[in-house]
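Lab meeting notes turned into a lecture example. A postdoc, R.K., suggested we walk through two folding results consecutively so the class can see how the record format repeats. The first protein's sequence and structure tokens come next.
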Amino acid sequence: MKKGFFITLEGGEACGKSTQVRMLKEYLDKQVNHDDFLFVREPGGTPLTEEIRKLLLNYEIDKPLPMTELLLFCAARVEDVYKQILPALSQGKVVIADRFYDSTIAYQGMARGIMSSKDILSLTKKIIGGLTPNLTFYLKISPEEAFKRKSKMSEGMDRIEKEGLLFHQKVKEGYDFISNLEKDRFYILDATKSPQEIFEEIKKVLNQKIPEYFKDDLSEEKY
């Protein structure tokens, strides 16, 4: 049986991460081995974690305190890891996650300043049993460029996306911190490139990293 492989996509707001997740899923859904891949998002994916997601991102009546926010993200992560990610990895699947603990380090650690980035890294690794992504794509963009993009999407933004420039500058500092600390698993993408250019680069890396799962010639249309 294949060993399984854990991939995460990370980045600040308006970096194009969600677009790449969507493009990758659409591409893989057409492959003959599409069952080898599981897409998850954090928080979310189970009834409980989807409710936690609503509380974290859309609850404006009684906003959670910073420590509450951190602990809710951690609680959702425990659910995601033990109910979705680890079972899939044990079956030899490739799990592709839209955010993981790097986001907590960047947002709740560096930007919120709830506790140090190192303490958050230690906490999150304890609660998930030391699980670390095999590969992390970091879509890197300056907060200034991100804000230009955000100015065109004034509607439909969640509570965290509405934070100011200083907050998102600190988010970038958090991502830079963890990508330097655990650089062996990080692949940094220039998020100012076009979505198609970024996607082609992601496909190239996946061909190199997991050729037993990912080949650019497995479309069902060829069979």
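The second example is placed directly after the first for contrast:
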Amino acid sequence: MATLTVKNASGADLGTPIEIDSSWLEFEKGEQAVKDSVVAFLAGCRAGTASTKTRGEVSGGGAKPWRQKGNGRARAGSNRSPVWRGGAIVFGPKPRSYAKKVNANVETLALRRVFSDRVKDNEIIVVDDIKPETAKTKDFVAFLKAIGVEGTAVVLVESAAMNVIDDEKAKFGFREPNLVLASRNLGNVILVAAESVNPYTLMKGEKVVITSAGLKALGQRLAKKKER
């Protein structure tokens, strides 16, 4: 059974490690699931708004360019034919959805495999909680440095927006609005709710910083169905 050391905001170990349930881990399978999940996620990000006009949509071309016979040129009924410059487009793109459906079990398997690999590579940092006293970016940068993050990082926290009564906080979707304000100007940090993180996002970043509550929320998603 794997364990993860818990740190405080100053980077000091709290002493009692967190045990990772074996149902959260998967090392033998899941590579194809990760690929399918990532492909589906990236496909869903495509706008699919490319559009060209068909012969029935392009404007102009109402008059016959020249008479049918006697001028030595090929017959032409419209100057908006696809073979003409400025004409229609044959088989061009039209607005469409690139979304791909991934089975829920496949998505969970992919998330479990990515999490397992990050645990195996010692790329997960668990902190007891993240409660910035200010919304200053430099303070959050100092926090990341203290816990050992030097490059890019994915920060996972428990969102629990539905439990927040204060509308000013609820609009951010997280318990701590200062965390959102302090981290949103950092290009090397991605702040995500553990309840909604996907395999693609979990793969990004050199380190994964997760709170104890966030780890518990993520574990509920990772646990195998038969052991829930």
